[in-house]
């Protein structure tokens, strides 16, 4: 990997983290150059990628807007996740073994720790890890890539909307219920639980 590619990727990850974990609605190329202490070229390339992925809007002579998702975008993402995750669950239910369940329980413990520490960002990341792991067990790369993209798009909104500990604990209970139903291989109920879970918080 060339130094140019490496810098571009570093800039992408740093700017994306800033978008997801901070509340700014606007930024600029100049401020990012100063903040990240990088040249314009990797930052500009990273911004083009983020714009293509829908995280930002670049407005000539005005700066960079970080828009929130519209209701339609959020609904579209929810429907997409229900489709790919339900399809994967139908296969995963026959593949899951004790090692898989141990790891899923570890994720839940990380979520509980995040609630105790009032760390919403860590909680949401662990929530993403839970659902991503169920996709990885099946191994459909297109589903995995698509999930990573849409979960990133909705991360910022979820962080703003979900800071109530009781609400986060309810999410954990739903994850535990999904695991129990998977262990019982009760496919109909686990699909119903998964759909309700995703509709309540995309």
Automatic annotation (TrEMBL):
Gene3D superfamilies the UniProt entry points to: GntR ligand-binding domain-like (1.20.120.530), Winged helix-like DNA-binding domain superfamily/Winged helix DNA-binding domain (1.10.10.10)
Domain HTH gntR-type: 1-69
Record flagged with keyword Metal-binding: no
Protein name: DNA-binding GntR family transcriptional regulator
Molecular function via GO: DNA binding
Keywords: DNA-binding, Transcription, Transcription regulation
Range of residues in the leader sequence: none
């Amino acid at each position: 990997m060339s130094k140019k590619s490496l810098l571009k990727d570093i800039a992408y990850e740093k700017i994306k983290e800033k978008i997801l974990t901070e509340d700014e609605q606007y930024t600029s190329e100049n401020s990012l150059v100063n903040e990240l202490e990088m040249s314009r070229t990797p930052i500009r390339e990273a911004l083009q990628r983020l714009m293509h992925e829908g995280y930002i809007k670049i407005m000539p002579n005005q700066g960079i807007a970080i828009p929130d998702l519209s209701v339609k975008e959020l609904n579209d993402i929810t429907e997409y996740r229900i489709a790919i995750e339900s399809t994967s669950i139908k296969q995963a239910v026959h593949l899951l073994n004790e090692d898989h369940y141990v790891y899923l329980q570890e994720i839940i413990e990380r979520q509980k720790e995040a609630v105790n520490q009032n760390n919403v960002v860590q909680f949401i990341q662990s929530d993403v890890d839970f659902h991503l792991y169920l996709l990885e067990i099946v191994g459909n790369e297109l589903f995995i890539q698509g999930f990573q993209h849409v979960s990133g798009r909705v991360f910022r909104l979820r962080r703003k909307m979900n800071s109530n500990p009781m609400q986060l604990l309810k999410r954990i209970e739903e994850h535990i219920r999904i695991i129990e139903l998977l262990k019982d291989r009760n496919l109909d109920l686990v699909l119903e639980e998964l759909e309700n879970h995703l509709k309540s918080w995309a």
